Amino acid sequence: MKLEDDILIEKYLRGTLSKDELSVISERIKNDDDFKKKVAFEKQLFETLNDDDWSFMEGEEAPEATLYEKIYKSDAVKKVKETIQQENQKYQNRKRTLFKRKFFYMGAAVIALLISIYLFSPKPPYSSEKLYTQYIESTDLPSLVTREQGENVLAKGQSFFEAKAYEKAIPIFKNRLELDNNATVYLYLGISQMELNRFSEAEKTFNSLINSNLLDAPKGKWYKALLYLKMKKIKKSKLLLEEIITTKSYNFQQAQELLEKLP
């Protein structure tokens, strides 16, 4: 492509052509496919580096469009664009169109590089403590309030538990387990011990539930996996989660989700 063509295309994109020149370029676009492709490419490049014509992605609600626009308007990209614009202004009066083209290409490449670095750089790992909190809070516990004997005592223990007064709740749960095995009480007791960082006691409680013949015994494995997560014993937690998934035990779908977030 001749330098004269570059100058002609730039004037066309900036809307500074005379009537005769506009007639010439319109005819060439109509009849010359190579020239038409060159004009289309230059128009795309011109719009990419122009804040007022940010249009190469449409759909403001698309997550990719929002991300690209955010990166495009970041401080790093703004500095690149400012440098390009300064150089463009400096040489505009000298008609150094070819030099400006090269600078535009360089700017576009830098912007593309910034976007790729942002998108494909390694994401920070999930915090085991945050994951523990997220999943312990999202797992519903059955109520301990029933019509059976001892209802008032268990209701009081549950109230202490919900108020995070675990020291007061633990003796109530232990006393109830001395009377009979109750899976829900095991869970309340184990979680209370876990929240107080009494890890060995919590593990023993969950093991008692897992090894029992109670219908809800499998729930113990899920909470034991969360216990290992809180203890930062990631390998042990992953092994238990894999076992839950394989056997499709209690919360196996959440186990799959959690496993994918662990390093």
Biggest beta sheet summary: none
- Terminal CA distance: 53 Å
How much helicity do the residues have? over 70%
Silhouette: rod-shaped
Rg calculated over all Cα atoms: 33 Å
Strand content of the residues, in percent?
Answer: under 5%
- Pick out the low-confidence regions: 53-62
How many distinct folded domains? 2
Total helical elements: 14
Q: What is the chain-wise order of helices and strands?
A: HHHHHHHHHHHHHH
Average per-residue pLDDT, rounded, comes to 79
The beta-strand count equals 0
CATH C-level class of the largest domain: Mainly Alpha
CATH superfamily of the largest domain: Tetratricopeptide repeat domain
CATH architecture classification of the largest domain: Alpha Horseshoe
Fold-level CATH name of the largest domain: Serine Threonine Protein Phosphatase 5, Tetratricopeptide repeat
- Which structural category fits the helices and strands? mainly alpha
How would you describe this protein?
- By secondary structure, the chain is mostly helical.
- It has two domains: 3-120, no CATH class; 128-261, Serine Threonine Protein Phosphatase 5, Tetratricopeptide repeat (Alpha Horseshoe), CATH 1.25.40.
- It has 14 helices and no strands.
- The two termini are 53 Å apart.
- α9 runs antiparallel to α10, α10 packs antiparallel against α11 and α12 runs antiparallel to α13.
- The chain has helices at residues 3-14, 19-31, 33-48, 63-72, 75-92, 97-120, 128-138, 151-162, 166-179, 183-195, 199-210, 219-230, 234-247, 252-261.
- Mean pLDDT is 79; it is low at 53-62.
- Helix content is 73%, strand content 0%.
